[in-house]
Write a structure and sequence with these properties.
Blueprint: E1 14-18, H1 23-34, E2 38-43, H2 46-56, E3 59-62, H3 68-72, E4 80-83, H4 98-126, E5 129-134, H5 147-167, E6 172-179, H6 185-198, H7 202-210, H8 222-232, E7 244-247
Parallel strand pairs: 1-2, 1-4, 2-3, 4-5, 5-6, 6-7
Helix pairs in contact: 1-2, 1-8, 4-5, 6-7
Bound molecules: nicotinamide-adenine-dinucleotide.
Nicotinamide-adenine-dinucleotide (NAD) binds next to helix 1 and helix 6.
Length: about 250
């Protein structure tokens, strides 16, 4: 699905993608490498990190992003930062484990904050940088039973905007990408869970439960999210900052 008519040249650039062992992160690592970047592949899953790194000719870092000391040990000489790692937990407020809520904020808000602080000095010194946060339609809209996730993604939206304001004069942009449901293991797990819980088949879960609020009733290919991330990394996108770009099949239009 590479499209060279809209090529973004990232030769000589170094990227760091969190959660790059799977799904959207892996698609981003592949796409950025395809555009010439050298990629630091960060993931808590060793085998997955090593596999993606080998595939893209990058470096694997096995790190739990909930651990601030481990995050601090990651490289800071980075031109493109993709804050992507995340996870879901579905439960009613009364049943939502507080420790899971906290871990979600650590992985999806605090780690992006720490990583942004880590890479900004290099980006500002080079007067060029791109920070892309993989938020979600849930950074803009809420759904029941997703307190930890919705809170984290809304927090990430706020962080991205502050970074955009502080970094603009240094040639660094910060943006969120807001996908609807993407075809990755994270969503496949939810589909299987809902199908079992409701006694319906998986295609019905996709159309009638997950994508109820989207006009387009199909899961998104992770390569499409990666293509948007790459677009935001182009020099043409220098004025796109502090933005949240939905790729949600019309969900937030309704
Ligand atoms: P995924 O489960 O396929 O991949 C997530 C990766 O992050 C995994 O490799 C996992 O090991 C890694 N990870 C999780 N916790 C980590 C931690 N503490 N430290 C280091 N690595 C960790 O999921 P995905 O669907 O590709 O999701 C990627 C991002 O996209 C997430 O932030 C998610 O919220 C967001 N997103 C996904 C969808 C979707 O429908 N799949 C929609 C909107 C936003």
């Amino acid at each position: 699905m590479s499209d060279n008519r809209h090529a973004v040249a990232l030769d000589g650039r170094v990227a760091l993608v969190t959660g790059a062992g799977s799904g959207i992160g892996r698609a981003c690592a592949r796409t950025l490498a395809e555009s010439g970047a050298k990629v630091h592949v960060v993931d808590v899953d060793r085998a997955a990190a090593e596999q993606t790194a080998a595939e893209v000719g990058g470096w694997a870092h096995v790190v739990d992003l909930a651990d601030p000391a481990a995050v601090d040990a990651l490289p800071g000489v980075v031109d493109v930062l993709v804050n992507n790692a995340g996870f879901q937990h579905v439960a009613a407020l009364a049943d939502f484990p507080p420790e899971t809520f906290s871990r979600m904020q650590q992985v999806m808000v605090t780690a992006p904050f720490l990583l942004t602080r880590k890479v900004l000095p290099h980006m500002c010194a080079r007067r060029w940088g791109r920070i892309v946060h993989i938020s979600s339609v849930h950074g803009l809209r809420a759904s029941p039973f997703k307190a930890g996730y919705v809170a984290a993604k809304h927090g990430l939206e706020g962080l991205s905007k502050v970074v955009a304001l502080e970094a603009a004069e240094h040639g660094v942009t910060s943006n969120c990408v807001n996908p609807g449901y993407v075809d990755t293991p994270l969503v496949r797990d939810q589909i299987a869970g809902q199908a079992a819980a409701n006694g319906i088949d998986e295609s019905e879960v996709v159309e009638r439960v997950l994508l109820q609020r989207a006009a387009l009733k199909r899961l998104i290919d992770p390569r499409r999210v990666a293509a948007l991330v790459r677009w935001l990394c182009g020099d043409h996108a220098a004025h796109v900052t502090g933005a949240s770009v939905p790729m949600d099949g019309g969900w937030t239009a309704a």
